Amino acid sequence: MGIVFGANGFFGYGYNTLSPEGQKKNLPYETCEPGNEAKRWSTYYLDECPDWRSVDSEDAKQQLVARHSGWKNPVVQEIIKNVQIDSVYPTWTTPELPTWERAGLVLIGDSAHALHPSSGQGVNQALEDSECFTLLLSYHLRAAYLEPQDSQWKTERVAVEQAAKDYSNMRIPRIKKIRERSAAIGDFKKPKTLVQEMFMYFFICSFRKPPT
Asked: Is 204 inside any structural domain?
């Protein structure tokens, strides 16, 4: 898979199928020849969301060509010359919520914090949410059973509500940091001045591993 960054977004491409021989292999460290199906996408910034349910293919193609016409990457140029566009997918995120719990009801994962794809943390944070709440619930249930209420339902209700509050207070600050970082990464898609573009390339190159 290749991802190319430019002054007004980034372009990705790669194969999404393996060769017939590669499909028979199941070892993760083996290198397989690609198949005959590929994918490509152009990610960019807009002030207003387009109507993604009704795509004008010709207009979308003209916008694609205009957006990448100055890019020097030959693969990108070959793709945009021949590609046909039939879909546009906006990126949706949830706004920050003041709490993820109320009266024992708890939100976990994307229902609480659908993050920008630039974060690369959607699944990770859902798993962290689950483990965090599970551990807190276990702790508060043990404590509640040591000093039970006049019914099991009330005892467990107290434990669930306290675990939910602690979970919300503990996880929201971490997600806020990830959200801010992913927003900064997402800004790479916004149109840039020459100085901003050069800084972006410097930033990307500084994280590249030297060839071995």
From this structure: no
